[in-house]
Design goal:
Length: 328
Protein backbone atom coordinates (compact mmCIF):
# COMPACT_ATOMS: atom_id res chain seq x y z
CA UNK A 1 0.00 0.00 0.00
CA UNK A 2 1.39 3.38 -0.92
CA UNK A 3 1.72 6.06 1.69
CA UNK A 4 -1.08 7.99 -0.06
CA UNK A 5 -3.45 5.07 0.34
CA UNK A 6 -2.49 4.68 3.97
CA UNK A 7 -3.20 8.33 4.63
CA UNK A 8 -6.50 8.03 2.81
CA UNK A 9 -7.58 5.09 5.01
CA UNK A 10 -6.56 6.86 8.17
CA UNK A 11 -8.61 9.85 7.03
CA UNK A 12 -11.60 7.61 6.24
CA UNK A 13 -11.40 5.91 9.62
CA UNK A 14 -11.36 9.28 11.33
CA UNK A 15 -14.40 10.55 9.43
CA UNK A 16 -16.41 7.36 10.01
CA UNK A 17 -15.69 7.23 13.72
CA UNK A 18 -16.14 10.95 14.32
CA UNK A 19 -19.49 10.57 16.17
CA UNK A 20 -17.74 8.35 18.75
CA UNK A 21 -15.44 11.26 19.54
CA UNK A 22 -18.37 13.63 20.10
CA UNK A 23 -18.30 14.99 23.60
CA UNK A 24 -22.06 15.34 23.88
CA UNK A 25 -23.63 12.67 26.09
CA UNK A 26 -27.31 11.92 26.64
CA UNK A 27 -28.79 10.08 29.59
CA UNK A 28 -32.38 9.25 30.54
CA UNK A 29 -33.94 8.08 33.78
CA UNK A 30 -37.28 7.94 35.53
CA UNK A 31 -37.77 9.32 39.03
CA UNK A 32 -40.49 11.28 40.83
CA UNK A 33 -42.90 9.58 38.35
CA UNK A 34 -41.32 11.70 35.61
CA UNK A 35 -38.89 11.14 32.76
CA UNK A 36 -35.56 12.84 33.48
CA UNK A 37 -33.37 13.82 30.55
CA UNK A 38 -29.80 15.00 30.77
CA UNK A 39 -27.56 16.17 27.92
CA UNK A 40 -24.07 17.35 28.78
CA UNK A 41 -20.76 18.18 27.17
CA UNK A 42 -17.83 16.32 28.71
CA UNK A 43 -14.64 15.12 27.09
CA UNK A 44 -14.24 12.04 29.28
CA UNK A 45 -17.04 9.54 28.62
CA UNK A 46 -16.50 7.68 31.91
CA UNK A 47 -16.72 10.94 33.82
CA UNK A 48 -19.91 11.90 31.97
CA UNK A 49 -21.49 8.60 33.01
CA UNK A 50 -20.41 9.01 36.63
CA UNK A 51 -21.82 12.55 36.73
CA UNK A 52 -25.15 11.40 35.30
CA UNK A 53 -25.35 8.68 37.98
CA UNK A 54 -24.78 11.26 40.68
CA UNK A 55 -27.50 13.52 39.26
CA UNK A 56 -30.03 10.67 39.04
CA UNK A 57 -29.17 9.51 42.55
CA UNK A 58 -30.05 12.98 43.79
CA UNK A 59 -33.47 12.70 42.09
CA UNK A 60 -33.96 9.37 43.89
CA UNK A 61 -32.99 10.93 47.21
CA UNK A 62 -35.50 13.75 46.73
CA UNK A 63 -38.23 11.28 45.76
CA UNK A 64 -37.57 9.22 48.92
CA UNK A 65 -37.76 12.41 50.97
CA UNK A 66 -40.70 14.20 49.36
CA UNK A 67 -43.01 11.67 47.72
CA UNK A 68 -46.57 11.33 48.95
CA UNK A 69 -46.58 7.77 47.61
CA UNK A 70 -43.75 6.61 49.89
CA UNK A 71 -44.97 5.98 53.43
CA UNK A 72 -41.50 6.40 54.92
CA UNK A 73 -40.86 9.75 53.19
CA UNK A 74 -40.35 12.78 55.36
CA UNK A 75 -43.33 14.40 53.69
CA UNK A 76 -45.61 11.48 54.64
CA UNK A 77 -44.32 11.67 58.20
CA UNK A 78 -45.11 15.40 58.38
CA UNK A 79 -48.61 14.77 57.06
CA UNK A 80 -49.19 12.11 59.73
CA UNK A 81 -47.78 14.07 62.69
CA UNK A 82 -47.67 17.82 62.19
CA UNK A 83 -51.10 18.57 63.64
CA UNK A 84 -50.25 16.67 66.84
CA UNK A 85 -46.71 17.95 67.32
CA UNK A 86 -43.98 20.18 65.87
CA UNK A 87 -42.03 17.98 63.47
CA UNK A 88 -38.29 18.47 62.99
CA UNK A 89 -37.52 18.71 59.28
CA UNK A 90 -34.18 18.05 57.57
CA UNK A 91 -32.48 21.19 56.20
CA UNK A 92 -33.03 20.39 52.51
CA UNK A 93 -36.76 19.81 52.95
CA UNK A 94 -37.04 22.84 55.22
CA UNK A 95 -35.53 25.02 52.50
CA UNK A 96 -38.07 23.71 49.96
CA UNK A 97 -40.93 24.38 52.40
CA UNK A 98 -39.57 27.88 52.89
CA UNK A 99 -39.46 28.51 49.13
CA UNK A 100 -43.02 27.20 48.82
CA UNK A 101 -44.17 29.61 51.53
CA UNK A 102 -42.43 32.52 49.82
CA UNK A 103 -44.20 31.76 46.54
CA UNK A 104 -47.51 31.54 48.44
CA UNK A 105 -46.95 35.00 49.88
CA UNK A 106 -45.82 36.43 46.53
CA UNK A 107 -48.89 35.03 44.77
CA UNK A 108 -51.32 35.89 47.57
CA UNK A 109 -52.05 32.26 48.21
CA UNK A 110 -52.53 31.13 44.60
CA UNK A 111 -49.62 28.74 45.10
CA UNK A 112 -50.43 26.67 48.15
CA UNK A 113 -48.95 23.31 49.18
CA UNK A 114 -51.98 22.63 51.40
CA UNK A 115 -53.92 22.05 48.16
CA UNK A 116 -53.37 18.39 49.13
CA UNK A 117 -56.01 18.73 51.90
CA UNK A 118 -58.54 18.74 49.05
CA UNK A 119 -56.38 17.45 46.20
CA UNK A 120 -55.82 14.01 47.70
CA UNK A 121 -59.54 13.34 47.16
CA UNK A 122 -58.97 13.45 43.39
CA UNK A 123 -57.66 10.33 41.66
CA UNK A 124 -56.56 11.11 38.12
CA UNK A 125 -55.67 7.51 37.30
CA UNK A 126 -59.09 6.23 38.36
CA UNK A 127 -60.84 9.36 36.99
CA UNK A 128 -62.40 10.18 40.35
CA UNK A 129 -63.25 13.58 41.80
CA UNK A 130 -64.77 14.40 45.19
CA UNK A 131 -68.41 15.43 45.48
CA UNK A 132 -69.03 19.13 46.18
CA UNK A 133 -69.95 18.60 49.84
CA UNK A 134 -66.62 16.88 50.51
CA UNK A 135 -64.73 19.75 48.88
CA UNK A 136 -66.64 22.29 51.00
CA UNK A 137 -65.91 20.31 54.18
CA UNK A 138 -62.15 20.51 53.57
CA UNK A 139 -61.82 23.88 51.86
CA UNK A 140 -60.74 25.80 54.99
CA UNK A 141 -57.81 23.38 55.35
CA UNK A 142 -56.56 24.52 51.92
CA UNK A 143 -54.75 27.63 53.11
CA UNK A 144 -51.00 28.10 53.42
CA UNK A 145 -51.34 29.91 56.73
CA UNK A 146 -52.38 26.58 58.22
CA UNK A 147 -48.69 25.62 58.01
CA UNK A 148 -46.32 27.15 60.56
CA UNK A 149 -42.61 27.01 59.83
CA UNK A 150 -40.20 27.82 62.63
CA UNK A 151 -36.78 28.61 61.21
CA UNK A 152 -35.09 28.65 64.62
CA UNK A 153 -35.96 25.05 65.35
CA UNK A 154 -36.46 24.00 61.68
CA UNK A 155 -39.82 22.52 62.58
CA UNK A 156 -43.22 22.45 60.93
CA UNK A 157 -46.64 22.44 62.58
CA UNK A 158 -50.18 22.39 61.19
CA UNK A 159 -52.83 24.57 62.83
CA UNK A 160 -55.83 22.43 61.87
CA UNK A 161 -56.57 18.73 61.92
CA UNK A 162 -56.75 17.25 58.44
CA UNK A 163 -54.26 19.63 56.80
CA UNK A 164 -52.10 17.86 54.22
CA UNK A 165 -49.19 19.24 52.20
CA UNK A 166 -47.77 18.15 48.85
CA UNK A 167 -44.78 19.43 46.90
CA UNK A 168 -45.91 18.37 43.41
CA UNK A 169 -45.87 22.02 42.28
CA UNK A 170 -42.25 22.70 43.26
CA UNK A 171 -40.20 19.54 44.02
CA UNK A 172 -39.15 18.82 40.45
CA UNK A 173 -37.84 22.35 40.06
CA UNK A 174 -35.83 21.89 43.25
CA UNK A 175 -34.46 18.57 41.97
CA UNK A 176 -33.41 20.16 38.67
CA UNK A 177 -31.55 22.90 40.58
CA UNK A 178 -29.79 20.25 42.67
CA UNK A 179 -28.82 18.42 39.47
CA UNK A 180 -27.39 21.59 37.95
CA UNK A 181 -25.39 22.21 41.14
CA UNK A 182 -23.83 18.74 40.76
CA UNK A 183 -22.95 19.48 37.11
CA UNK A 184 -21.42 22.79 38.16
CA UNK A 185 -19.36 21.08 40.87
CA UNK A 186 -17.86 18.79 38.26
CA UNK A 187 -16.93 21.71 36.04
CA UNK A 188 -19.54 21.01 33.36
CA UNK A 189 -20.24 24.20 31.42
CA UNK A 190 -22.82 23.08 28.81
CA UNK A 191 -25.82 20.99 29.82
CA UNK A 192 -29.56 20.60 29.52
CA UNK A 193 -31.47 18.93 32.37
CA UNK A 194 -35.21 18.36 32.36
CA UNK A 195 -37.73 16.61 34.59
CA UNK A 196 -41.05 16.60 32.76
CA UNK A 197 -42.12 20.23 32.44
CA UNK A 198 -39.21 21.65 34.41
CA UNK A 199 -35.86 22.29 32.78
CA UNK A 200 -32.68 24.19 33.30
CA UNK A 201 -29.97 25.05 30.82
CA UNK A 202 -26.36 25.32 31.89
CA UNK A 203 -24.46 27.57 29.51
CA UNK A 204 -25.29 27.32 25.83
CA UNK A 205 -24.90 24.61 23.22
CA UNK A 206 -21.24 25.48 22.80
CA UNK A 207 -21.53 28.60 20.73
CA UNK A 208 -25.24 28.40 19.87
CA UNK A 209 -28.31 28.79 22.05
CA UNK A 210 -30.45 25.81 23.07
CA UNK A 211 -33.73 25.75 21.17
CA UNK A 212 -36.62 25.27 23.57
CA UNK A 213 -40.22 24.70 22.50
CA UNK A 214 -43.44 25.61 24.29
CA UNK A 215 -45.88 22.81 23.48
CA UNK A 216 -49.23 23.37 21.86
CA UNK A 217 -51.49 22.51 24.85
CA UNK A 218 -53.98 20.68 22.63
CA UNK A 219 -51.46 18.86 20.46
CA UNK A 220 -48.31 17.98 22.36
CA UNK A 221 -46.55 16.79 19.22
CA UNK A 222 -46.57 20.40 18.03
CA UNK A 223 -44.77 23.43 19.40
CA UNK A 224 -46.63 26.72 19.77
CA UNK A 225 -43.51 28.80 20.29
CA UNK A 226 -39.80 28.15 19.90
CA UNK A 227 -37.23 30.11 21.94
CA UNK A 228 -33.43 30.25 21.63
CA UNK A 229 -32.15 30.27 25.23
CA UNK A 230 -29.10 29.72 27.41
CA UNK A 231 -28.29 29.70 31.13
CA UNK A 232 -31.88 29.79 32.33
CA UNK A 233 -34.63 27.72 33.93
CA UNK A 234 -37.89 27.06 32.05
CA UNK A 235 -41.01 25.46 33.55
CA UNK A 236 -44.39 24.82 32.05
CA UNK A 237 -47.61 24.03 33.90
CA UNK A 238 -50.44 22.76 31.77
CA UNK A 239 -54.00 21.53 32.09
CA UNK A 240 -53.01 18.65 29.78
CA UNK A 241 -50.37 17.08 32.04
CA UNK A 242 -52.67 15.17 34.34
CA UNK A 243 -56.40 15.24 33.67
CA UNK A 244 -59.56 13.35 32.75
CA UNK A 245 -62.87 14.39 31.24
CA UNK A 246 -65.86 14.10 33.61
CA UNK A 247 -69.43 13.03 32.81
CA UNK A 248 -70.30 16.57 31.70
CA UNK A 249 -67.34 16.70 29.32
CA UNK A 250 -65.43 19.08 31.58
CA UNK A 251 -61.69 18.79 31.92
CA UNK A 252 -60.72 17.79 35.48
CA UNK A 253 -57.01 18.63 35.74
CA UNK A 254 -54.39 18.74 38.48
CA UNK A 255 -53.98 22.45 39.30
CA UNK A 256 -56.48 23.46 41.96
CA UNK A 257 -57.89 26.82 42.94
CA UNK A 258 -57.66 27.64 46.67
CA UNK A 259 -60.96 29.53 46.28
CA UNK A 260 -63.01 26.61 44.95
CA UNK A 261 -60.96 23.46 45.62
CA UNK A 262 -61.58 22.64 41.96
CA UNK A 263 -59.42 22.72 38.83
CA UNK A 264 -58.58 26.28 37.79
CA UNK A 265 -60.41 27.58 34.72
CA UNK A 266 -59.26 30.05 32.09
CA UNK A 267 -55.76 28.83 31.26
CA UNK A 268 -54.24 26.07 29.13
CA UNK A 269 -50.55 26.55 29.89
CA UNK A 270 -48.09 28.82 31.64
CA UNK A 271 -44.37 28.87 30.88
CA UNK A 272 -42.01 30.73 33.19
CA UNK A 273 -38.41 31.71 32.53
CA UNK A 274 -36.31 32.38 35.64
CA UNK A 275 -32.80 32.07 37.03
CA UNK A 276 -33.49 28.83 38.84
CA UNK A 277 -35.96 25.99 38.45
CA UNK A 278 -37.53 26.07 41.92
CA UNK A 279 -38.67 29.61 41.09
CA UNK A 280 -39.84 28.80 37.55
CA UNK A 281 -41.65 25.66 38.78
CA UNK A 282 -43.43 27.34 41.67
CA UNK A 283 -44.35 30.41 39.65
CA UNK A 284 -45.69 28.41 36.69
CA UNK A 285 -48.24 26.81 39.02
CA UNK A 286 -48.91 30.14 40.79
CA UNK A 287 -49.52 32.09 37.55
CA UNK A 288 -51.72 29.29 36.22
CA UNK A 289 -53.94 29.79 39.28
CA UNK A 290 -53.80 33.61 39.16
CA UNK A 291 -54.97 33.85 35.54
CA UNK A 292 -53.85 36.19 32.75
CA UNK A 293 -54.30 39.58 34.36
CA UNK A 294 -53.07 38.95 37.92
CA UNK A 295 -50.48 36.47 36.72
CA UNK A 296 -48.85 38.91 34.31
CA UNK A 297 -49.01 41.69 36.91
CA UNK A 298 -47.03 39.48 39.30
CA UNK A 299 -44.43 38.47 36.69
CA UNK A 300 -43.95 42.05 35.47
CA UNK A 301 -43.18 43.04 39.05
CA UNK A 302 -40.42 40.43 39.45
CA UNK A 303 -36.91 41.05 38.17
CA UNK A 304 -35.38 38.39 35.93
CA UNK A 305 -38.62 36.45 35.51
CA UNK A 306 -40.65 36.19 32.29
CA UNK A 307 -43.79 34.38 31.25
CA UNK A 308 -45.68 33.05 28.26
CA UNK A 309 -49.34 32.29 28.96
CA UNK A 310 -51.77 30.43 26.70
CA UNK A 311 -55.32 31.16 27.81
CA UNK A 312 -58.39 28.95 27.38
CA UNK A 313 -59.09 30.37 23.91
CA UNK A 314 -55.54 29.59 22.78
CA UNK A 315 -54.47 33.25 22.84
CA UNK A 316 -50.82 33.76 23.76
CA UNK A 317 -49.83 36.47 26.29
CA UNK A 318 -46.27 37.59 27.01
CA UNK A 319 -44.77 39.40 29.99
CA UNK A 320 -43.46 42.91 29.27
CA UNK A 321 -39.80 41.97 28.79
CA UNK A 322 -40.65 39.50 26.02
CA UNK A 323 -42.66 42.08 24.04
CA UNK A 324 -41.34 44.41 21.37
CA UNK A 325 -40.64 47.81 22.94
CA UNK A 326 -43.18 49.51 20.65
CA UNK A 327 -46.16 47.35 21.61
CA UNK A 328 -46.50 48.36 25.19
P1 LIG B 1 -46.15 19.19 36.76
O1 LIG B 1 -44.75 19.63 36.39
O2 LIG B 1 -46.29 17.94 37.56
O3 LIG B 1 -47.13 19.30 35.64
P2 LIG B 1 -46.83 21.74 37.84
O4 LIG B 1 -45.62 22.51 38.17
O5 LIG B 1 -47.62 22.13 36.67
O6 LIG B 1 -46.54 20.20 37.86
O7 LIG B 1 -47.75 21.78 39.11
C1 LIG B 1 -48.90 20.98 39.20
C2 LIG B 1 -48.86 20.19 40.48
O8 LIG B 1 -48.83 21.12 41.56
C3 LIG B 1 -50.07 19.34 40.71
O9 LIG B 1 -49.93 18.05 40.15
C4 LIG B 1 -50.14 19.31 42.21
O10 LIG B 1 -49.24 18.35 42.71
C5 LIG B 1 -49.63 20.68 42.61
N1 LIG B 1 -50.68 21.72 42.78
C6 LIG B 1 -51.95 21.74 42.34
N2 LIG B 1 -52.59 22.89 42.67
C7 LIG B 1 -51.68 23.62 43.36
C8 LIG B 1 -51.70 24.92 43.99
N3 LIG B 1 -52.79 25.71 43.96
N4 LIG B 1 -50.57 25.33 44.60
C9 LIG B 1 -49.46 24.56 44.66
N5 LIG B 1 -49.37 23.35 44.08
C10 LIG B 1 -50.46 22.88 43.44
MG1 LIG C 1 -44.98 24.18 38.92
Amino acid sequence: MTIRYKLFFIFLLFVLSAPVFSHWHSFSYVAMTTPIDLVLWEEDTGKAEAISQEVFKEFDRIEQQMSRYIETSELSRINRLAFKESVIVSPSLFSVLNSAMNISKLSQGAFDITFASVGYMYDFRKKLKPVNSKIQQNLDLFHYQNVLLDSNTETVKFTKEGVLIDLGGIAKGYAVDQGIAILNNHGVTSAHLSAGGDMRLLGDKRGAPWIIGVKNPRDESKQSIVLPLSNIAVSTSGDYERFFMDEKGERVHHILSPKTGKPVKGMMSVTILANNAITSDGLSTAVFVLGVEDGLALINKLKGVDAILIDESGKVHYSDDLMRPDVH
